[in-house]
Design a protein that fits this description.
Order of helices and strands: HHHHHEEEHEHEHEHEHH
Shape: elongated
Number of helices: 11
Distance between the termini: 19 Å
Largest sheet: 5 strands, parallel
Number of strands: 7
Helix content: 40-55%
Length: about 260
Amino acid sequence: MDLGALKPVLAGLALPPVSPLLLALLGLVLAWCNKKRSGLTLATISVLLLALLSCHGTAVWLARTALPQFAPLDLADLKARKVQAIVILGGDVLPVAPEYGHSQPSAATAARLRYGTWLARQSGLPLAFSGGLGWGAHSTQTESEADVAARALQQDYGLALRWRESQSRDTAGNARLTAPLLQQAGVQRIALVTHAWHMPRAMLAFEQAGLAVTPAPMGYVLPAQGELLEWLPSAQGLQASRQVLREWLALAVGRFLPA
């Protein structure tokens, strides 16, 4: 087995909801092993932590404090920084979409495609897309993210990709494999489109690959409901917290184990 295939498994174990649940289970085991007080305390804290991380308000706070911040792109910056191309990063696909009869972009990828398309139309810059089969891809997924994105871009927006990178399996691979394609065409300065919570790691990877990067973040983790609802546990809140913590963990690990 390729060691890269362990990445999503290890991440799943380290992130909520699995990690708090494992701690709660450990607490129950300790309680059963005649360490009732300490065991029940650990289990209670773990459940409360999971509830807190399931609040969208927690995700918003984490996004603002745990990760580097990037302001929305000012279109004038594209010209001022002499950007030559817009690069959109894949964010997974739906390998089976029976209603369409073939794979479709996931919600994250579709959102990135929409923003990248808008930037391309506003600026007239060519588009590149990077994404293959991720390490956690389902066995039914046969098309790369880039191939799915290219079809959706043509069908939904009437646009074509100038460059398509379809072999990468993670963010480091996105940068490593996309940079040569662009550099062969004389492109050195890009605008990079991905979610705001993913931008710190993505921008670092593309800069290390030798490109000058103008961040074009989208999909910010921001308050989206009434104040009370922001602090009620929900699947949406847990997903947002998980995304932010995943990026924070990846950045931390990258300082010791650079890609």
